[in-house]
Write a structure and sequence with these properties.
Elements lengths: L2 E3 L8 E10 L5 E5 L9 E2 L7 H13 L1 E18 L2 E17 L10 E5 L1 H7 L5 H11 L12
Parallel strand pairs: 2-6
Antiparallel strand pairs: 1-5, 2-4, 3-7, 5-6
């Protein structure tokens, strides 16, 4: 299970890339899929020498054919990769709110599908085990107004 952390300080652990809540000018959220069944937010691991934001820009372009115009770090997720019932290192992923321009859909990598969803539906379309994390992140980003911990507006 992944845990939520605010943007400062950076949590201890191994940098594991960037995830972007890509928002279009129409206010829609970009989702990606390898199979047109399971959907997620574009994300990926850093390449040698990249910082958090450089990873965001490259991965959004590669996975979603989206050019990041502006981005704001909203927090981090931390989790462990489990192999043969043994926990690996803590993996830290940056989570961003990104205003994007969509390019023509021309998948070049593992992602084969892209779709747009209204903010009120986007979290419900991704893997359910991450719903609490994404609900919290959407609140922190200002995409939704209901605090998941308070249940209030």
């Amino acid at each position: 299970m992944a845990s939520w952390h605010p943007p400062s300080p950076v949590p201890d652990g191994q940098p594991h890339g960037a995830c972007g809540f890509c928002v279009t000018d129409a206010g829609e959220i970009v989702l990606i899929s390898t199979d047109n069944v399971l959907w997620d937010f574009p994300a990926g691991r850093p390449q040698a020498g990249e910082d958090w934001e450089e990873t965001l820009h490259r991965e959004m372009l590669e996975e979603a054919c989206a050019v990041v115009r502006s981005a704001r770090l909203i927090g981090f997720s931390c989790g462990r990769k489990w192999e043969a019932e043994v926990a690996g290192p803590v993996l830290v992923r940056s989570i961003w709110l990104a205003q994007v321009d969509l390019l023509e859909w021309d998948p070049q990598f593992e992602i084969r599908y892209r779709r747009l969803a209204p903010p009120t539906q986007a979290v419900g379309l991704v893997l359910p085990e991450f719903e609490p994390l994404w609900t919290r992140a959407f609140f922190e980003a200002g995409i939704v107004r209901t605090d998941p911990e308070q249940g209030q507006n």
